Amino acid sequence: MQGPWDAIVIGAGAAGLMCAITAGRHGRRVLLLDHANKVGKKILMSGGGRCNFTNTGTTPANYLSANPHYCKSALARYAPQDFIDLVDRHRIAWHEKELGQLFCDDSSKQIVRMLLDECEAAGVRVETGCPIEEVRHHGDHFRLHTAQGPCAAPALVVATGGLSIPSMGASGFGYTLARQFGHEVLPTRAGLVPLTLSGKHHERLQDLAGVALPVEARCNGARFSNQLLVTHRGVSGPAILQISSYWQPGDDLRLDLLPGRDVLAWLQAQQRERPAAELKTVLGEVMPRRFAQRLCEIWLPSRPLRQYPDAELRPVAALLQAWPLIASGSEGYRTAEVTLGGVDTDQLSSSTMMSRRVEGLYFIGEVVDVTGWLGGYNFQWAWASGHAAGLALAARAA
């Protein structure tokens, strides 16, 4: 592995692969290292094995960061269509599932194969099963001691991901490197993750595990309409995974259990048309019956609708549109799809991803404090940030 190399990329996930491919296409000699036994492990598992590889509706507003402007430059220069064009060139069939989310028709293995084929075509050397033991910066070179021997290059790209899903090899190595070179690392926590319930809140819902219904989840000014799934330990489903990135213990989290409906007007209409029907009966016709019955056992008195004066019907409607969900925590990094926080963008160039502190040092992908919504946005950030760093490597070596 002695080289000579123009750049070494640590981490053969989505961002690292794209960076290596981009730099390699421009004639740069790139060494791509990963401690795992194969590349793209998170790509392989994503989207239920079909890889939700981008989202056609990607905008900077779909990302969380201490600096919401940081992601704009990279996203503008590598759009979802750019990756779609790459997928199409490799004749990989895909489809849109919902909300701009694009998936492979067949398997996520096709995306990994595509990226490896692109690496080969670009002359990138890929080494797996190669843990990094030490990184030093001497003069104008980064010198690495690895399990497969030493290597060096004038540029080093850190694409090591975050802490989510440690069973797949996730670690804090990228954050350790960032701190080693004088970078701040903002506090990290699990994102896009199921929430847990405890005590009476858990007891009230645990036997409803498996029940799903559409909701609008709201917290700290964010709102997402999608499915809620009751689990044995709490709640999950796309709406909950989305809102989890905006929620922390103690925050007020509300669910509209009948999204898109004027609940008071609907209840008043039901009262006129079916005065003898019980509240739990009419609710059971527009949401899972077991869930409606539990609502009426604990939160809402169930009586024939004619017995509700308007003064009582209004709070019933208000509760249905802003039902409080008292979560105690999350399932943590074990099942989280992403890591919030990470390398502070204040000391990184938004156009090149290069460190403002150390010449030739780059940070891309999930290790950086940029986190996307559920639905292909994090892959698009990986492609875009990797592409930006790859172009910068090409310009730097020219």
TrEMBL record:
Signal sequence, start to end: none
Organism from which the protein derives: Dokdonella koreensis DS-123
Lineage of the organism: Bacteria, Pseudomonadati, Pseudomonadota, Gammaproteobacteria, Lysobacterales
Ranges of residues in domain RsdA/BaiN/AoA(So)-like insert: 189-338
Keyword match Flavoprotein: yes
Cofactor(s) needed: FAD
UniProt protein name: Pyridine nucleotide-disulfide oxidoreductase
Keyword Flavoprotein included in the entry's annotation: yes
Domain RsdA/BaiN/AoA(So)-like Rossmann fold-like: 6-390
InterPro entries xrefs: BaiN-like (IPR004792), BaiN-like_dom_sf (IPR023166), FAD/NAD-bd_sf (IPR036188), RsdA/BaiN/AoA(So)-like_dom (IPR055178), RsdA/BaiN/AoA(So)_Rossmann (IPR057661)
Keywords, alphabetical: FAD, Flavoprotein
